[in-house]
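Field: sequence (string)
Field: structure_tokens (string)

Example rows 1 and 2, in order.
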Amino acid sequence: MSDHRRRRRLVVDATTAYTWTVRHRHGDGQPCREILTLGRGGRRTRIVFRDGEGRYSGGGGYGHSGGVGDRDHHLNLHEPGVVRAFVDEAARRDLLSRDGELDGWELFPAVVAAVALSRAAAATAEAPPGCPPGP
């Protein structure tokens, strides 16, 4: 069995790399939460998903560690492609330039769309070289 709590490395381009971990937390009277922590250049950004109305995070009930979602969509924070989509969206919004905590639900819709697009592109077969264009 793999250890989902270990620090992993995500390389974005030749000069940019992040470390990341996923943790499940609860207690202190707060709802359960999943925390995706991104590290780069001595900075740590925590993307936090708190349980709430119509939203779930983590291993409670029928969920699993790293699982976050709403009534319509589910993401697994242990998948590098999902983490990459969060990095891309947070970077696009210029949210990774400082230490801090981000509300993961703010990024969730854009990341769901990016992951769906990426999976659709991966599932689409390419035409063989030299094949004439379609109809």
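Row 2 begins here:
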Amino acid sequence: MDVKRELFLPALKAALKNETVSWEKELEPQVWMELFQIAGKHQVLPMIYEAVYGCPAARKIEPQILLSAKQQTIRAVMLQTMKTSEFLGMFADCQGSCQ
């Protein structure tokens, strides 16, 4: 199975449309891990996780695989939140000194 073409891109498309995928067919654990690995590599794991965690196929997955992806998603969101906060602080400092 070409995970990138058959799963990653449809999941990304769904995420961009603020939708979820409706996969019914049970997927092998290795396929799920590859999907989440590709999403992490492209730094879109939170988007992909959001699009897939509620689909019927995800209800059939080993809980540990989904839990691992959830934990990675939480870490990614927390890191982005901290980076955004730091950026806004620097931007505010720059605005104050540049005026």
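free_text_note (row 2): The chain has one domain: 3-98.
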